[in-house]
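Weekly modeling sync, notes
Attendees: S.R. (lead), two postdocs, one rotation student

Agenda item 3: backlog of single-chain predictions. S.R. asked that every request posted to the team notebook include the full sequence so nobody has to chase files. The rotation student volunteered to paste the first one in as an example of the format we agreed on. Action items at the bottom.

Example entry:
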Amino acid sequence: MITTGDFRNGLTIEFEGELYTIISFQHSKKGRGAAFVRTKLLSLKSGRTKENTFTAGEKVVEARIERHPYQFLYKDEMGYTFMHNETFEQVILNPQMVFNNDLMKDGQNVEIVFHADTNTALSCDLPAFVELVVEYTEPGLKGDTASSNVLKPAKLETGAEIKVPLFVNIGDKIKVDTRDRAYNERVK
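Predicted structure, as returned to the notebook:
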């Protein structure tokens, strides 16, 4: 058991019979009232977010989770198939369990989160940044510079669509942040 004082982003807890990951939290104390902790929780079962307020010092059960390195092999009608990097065992995950799955290409290394008590897969975490080739985007106009804050849509090699600066062209390799699907930089 842990208390609300032990909360941190990324912590997985058991709450209302489900497993949730804490996305964000904020301790608050107003006037004479009791202190409380506002949290934003991500359900590992449904992928939905939920906001909840805990009283300060409230005890919750910390879920035991394990992260294992896997490699993405392929996608078919059953879901996404991954192979463990050391044991070569394969696991199939539903598309809902792989956040931003359209940024993942064949051979991509990922981490799969397992519930340690039941040994069931909970989610798949992509690396923070992936490098992808721009497959299609409208050409930028003459005079557009790197300092302009104007973005245009671009289709990547995996089929994902994101917004990129005007100076990015077809065939450019770019670095994309998988947490918020944002363009980061061009890769040389």
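Discussion: group reviewed the output briefly. The longest strand covers residues 65-76.
Action items: rotation student to repeat for the remaining queue; S.R. to check formatting next week.
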